[in-house]
Predict the structure.
Amino acid sequence: MPLYVYECTACSKRFEFFQHYTDDPITVCPDCQTPTLRKVWQPVTVHYKGNGFYVTDKKAAQT
Ligand SMILES: [Zn+2]
């Protein structure tokens, strides 16, 4: 399953999602809940942790 990187233009956070090619693009930011996500086309290092999405940075800011 390919890994897509999205960046929120509202809060500038980045998220990585495993999606099938046929899945609809994700548009709503999981952090600020605004529909401002856009795909970032860049090579990424995959740290495979199973299914679903996970946040790779700035998670500590939620505490
Ligand atoms: Zn956001």
